[in-house]
């Protein structure tokens, strides 16, 4: 056993020196103290990097096909009443959603932005007990209601039982409604009176729409859109004014779910116009994004960049109408963000490198200072006795 122990002693890479040969110096103490502080500082810096996750970013070609795009919005129009503010969405595939009402909340606001009333869009309107029948008389007891389409019927069995159905019948004929005060259904729904009651108010509209994952647009316009012969026409209500101020504030606009670090460049954007009938256009480039956090939770969302343009338009034009328009296109490149920790072995390697490096550098500095001091001392002694 003694032979084995002796062989192990010969392998010792750290031979010990008798304490009688040690010499401690003041400069060595200062160097030890300074190196200890540096070592602690670097240790806690590495520890902070180890405890906090880092995000790795990759760009890949988006090979996914189909799917939907979820758009969330919250906009305020300080001088456009809720009753005449409409939302439409159209995509490049030809799919159209006109006068969207599902998943939409409209809030009447005053000129200070204070909410007067909030209601889901599309909720039914009040009815009277005896509406006008198709034959011209009023609804009698036990008689089935069949409202007049005011000349837009395509067959003897057609009925228009709401203001919206009259508009749809006129749309199919390619006609325009010039005065809704003459339509019994619209009067019953109190639509015109509602608009007049909201005169001078603004509107906050928020909600979400789901569209095909292809290039398209959605827009907020003062009026109701109708489609005929591949052109969109604005069937505006017969109100006292034909001028509309589209000053607006975008409180929120996102394309998909939120994730940590997501920045939406249009959030908080505010435009105020002194003139009427402005067409404000936002051109949005949507970038598909996959975010995976440190716990492995994955969020499929989108980032976007934007440019904008606005111009004055002539009221009544079928090609340019006042409103706020968002034109979006899908980027072919997908961004992936992945949160991850520094591996523990890398952390330990960095700690060992810090400790060993500081000790080595401190030893070199101490030896250099010590030898310098000895040379100075010898010169002093030679000068004294020489």
Summarize the structure.
The protein is elongated. 26% of the residues lie in helices and 32% in strands.
Features:
6-stranded antiparallel sheet; 26% helix; 6 helices; alpha+beta; 8-stranded mixed sheet
Largest sheet: 8 strands, mixed
Total number of strands: 16
Q: What is the average per-residue confidence, as pLDDT, rounded to a whole number?
A: 79
Into which percent range does the helicity of residues fall? 25-40%
* Strand portion: 25-35%
Distance between the terminal alpha carbons, to the nearest Å?
A: 59 Å
Order of helices and strands: HHEEEEEEHHHEEEEEEEEEEH
Shape: elongated
Query: Over all CA atoms, what is the radius of gyration?
Result: 38 Å
Class inferred from helices and paired strands? alpha+beta
| Total count of domains | 3
List the helices and strands and how they pair.
Layout: H1 2-10, H2 26-51, E1 54-61, E2 68-77, E3 85-91, E4 96-97, E5 104-109, E6 115-120, H3 163-173, H4 184-188, H5 191-197, E7 202-212, E8 216-222, E9 224-228, E10 231-235, E11 248-255, E12 269-271, E13 278-292, E14 298-312, E15 323-330, E16 333-340, H6 344-385
Parallel strand pairs: 13-15, 13-16
Antiparallel strand pairs: 1-16, 2-7, 2-11, 3-4, 3-8, 5-6, 5-7, 8-15, 9-10, 11-12, 13-14
Helix pairs in contact: 2-6
């Amino acid at each position: 056993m003694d032979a084995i122990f002796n062989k192990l002693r010969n392998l010792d890479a750290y031979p010990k020196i008798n304490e009688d040969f040690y010499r401690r110096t003041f400069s060595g103490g200062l160097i030890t103290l300074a190196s200890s502080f540096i070592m602690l500082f670097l240790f806690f810096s590495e520890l902070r990097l180890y405890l906090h996750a880092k995000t790795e970013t990759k760009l890949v070609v988006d090979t996914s096909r189909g799917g939907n795009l979820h758009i969330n919005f919250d906009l305020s129009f300080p001088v456009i009443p809720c009753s005449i503010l409409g939302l439409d969405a159209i995509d490049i595939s030809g799919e159209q959603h006109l006068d969207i009402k599902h998943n939409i909340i409209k809030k009447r606001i005053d000129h200070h932005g204070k909410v007067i009333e909030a209601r889901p869009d599309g909720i039914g309107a009040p009815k009277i007990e005896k509406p006008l029948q198709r034959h011209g008389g009023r609804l009698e007891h036990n008689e089935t209601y069949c409202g007049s389409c005011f000349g837009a019927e395509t067959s003897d069995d057609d009925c228009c039982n709401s203001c919206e159905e009259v508009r749809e019948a006129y749309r199919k004929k390619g006609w325009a409604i010039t005065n809704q005060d003459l339509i019994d259904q619209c009067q019953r729904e109190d639509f015109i009176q509602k608009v007049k009651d909201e005169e001078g108010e603004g509107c906050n509209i928020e909600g979400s729409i789901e569209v095909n994952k292809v290039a398209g647009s959605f827009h907020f316009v003062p009026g109701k859109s109708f489609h005929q012969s591949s052109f969109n026409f604005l069937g505006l209500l017969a109100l006292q004014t034909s001028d509309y101020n589209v000053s607006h504030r975008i409180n929120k606009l996102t394309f998909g779910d939120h994730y940590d670090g997501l920045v939406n460049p249009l959030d908080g954007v505010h435009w105020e116009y002194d003139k009427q009938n402005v067409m404000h256009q936002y051109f949005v480039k949507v970038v598909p994004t996959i975010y995976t956090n440190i716990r492995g939770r994955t969020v499929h969302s989108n980032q976007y960049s934007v440019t904008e343009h606005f111009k004055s338009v002539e009221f009544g034009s079928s090609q340019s109408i006042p409103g706020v328009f968002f034109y979006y296109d899908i980027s072919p490149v997908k961004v992936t963000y992945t949160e991850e920790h520094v591996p523990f072995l890398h952390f330990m390697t960095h700690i060992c490198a810090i400790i060993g490096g500081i000790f080595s550098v401190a030893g070199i500095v101490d030896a250099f200072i010590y030898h310098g001091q000895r040379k100075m001392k010898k010169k002093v002694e030679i000068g004294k006795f020489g």
